[in-house]
Amino acid sequence: FVVDLASVQSRCAKVRMRILAPDGQPAVGAIARLSSAQGGGEAGRCDEQGICVIENVMPGLAAFNIMAKSAERYTSHLTIAAGSDRDLGDIMLTTTSELLGQIVTSDGAGIAATVQWTALDLWRPPHPMIDRRSGSADADGNFQVYGAGQRRYSVVARTADKRVGFAVVDAAVASAERFKLTVHATHALHLKATQPLQVRAVVVADANGNALQVRRIEPRWPTSQIALPDGEYRMTVYDGFGNQLAREVLNIAGADIEKELP
Questions:
Q1: Please, are residues 27 and 21 in contact by the beta-carbon 8 Å criterion?
Q2: Whole-model pTM above 0.85?
Q3: Cα distance between residue 41 and residue 132, in whole Å
Q4: How far apart are CA 250 and CA 241, in angstroms?
């Protein structure tokens, strides 16, 4: 078969933005990168005005990262339309925050775990939460949210014996004392898509609407599951464009449950 190079190139997109440092000045030399699910991608560097242009971007879901001197590690996702010329406008970075936490069991003992975190004010459905970076809590449960800015973070911890815990922390007002994140035994929320060839995003949030876990159900994998401790949650289902399809109160109480997605 023959691949038409011009046709392939016409599907690539261009993404532009102006990146500002925490002091409001252009973030000269900052690097912005858009990466695909396979890990490859394209990057651009800010000029003297803070303008950054990324060309030849593959369409679809992309991880979006910005690295700049003396600023947070900005991490989110974008959905890129084929052949588009997209202007993100101004992106203001924040200063870094030393956000420290401790993973504990239900009896208050520290425990080792893997930790992941997502800046809630940068996340939008139907995008996944940040899963490409993680940290480790030591044997006493101590860890740091590296690269944190002055933002609200949803933090999840998973232990080797599959206990899970969540915390929502505002780094802008966090104290020097470590915040506590308690892990518990879990049950499975089994998810099954009923509409073939369509993307679904399932968001499990706490009672205040803070996202704790997100699962994207792709056409290739119509089933998935989420491990959740006992408790009351809010579950919202979105299509692949971010349109809300369903919302309900979700109760996990001592057993696995199954949900079919609209």
A1: yes
A2: yes
A3: 14
A4: 23
The set of residues, in sequence order, having a beta carbon less than 8 Å from that of 28 and lying 6+ positions away, is 46, 47, 48, 50
SS (H, E, C) the chain: CCCCHHHHHHHCEEEEEEEECCCCCECCCCEEEEECCCCCEEEEECCCCCEEEEEEECCEEEEEEEECCCCCCEEEEEEECCCCEEEEEEEECCCCCCEEEEEECCCCCECCEEEEEEEHHHCCCCCCCCCCCCEEECCCCEEEECCCCCCEEEEEEECCCCCEEEEEEECCCCCCCCEEEECECEEEEEEEECCCCCCEEEEEECCCCCEEEEEEECCCCCEEEEEEECEEEEEEEEECCCCEEEEEEEEECCCCEEEEEC
One-letter amino acid at 136 equals S
Give the number of C-alpha atoms closer than 13 A to the C-alpha of residue 151, restricted to the C-beta side. 27
Query: Residues 134, 114: contact at Cβ < 8 Å?
Result: yes
Encoded tokens for 39: 């890990």
**Each residue of 72-85: pLDDT tens digit?**
999 999 999 999 99
Contact status, residue 24 vs residue 14, Cβ threshold 8 Å: no
**Contact indicator for 158, 113 with CB cutoff of 8 Å:** yes
Compute CA distances 98 → 67, 71, 152, 227, whole Å. Answer: 17, 12, 13, 29
Please write the tens of the pLDDT for every residue from 160-208: 999 999 999 999 987 778 999 999 999 999 999 998 889 999 999 999 9
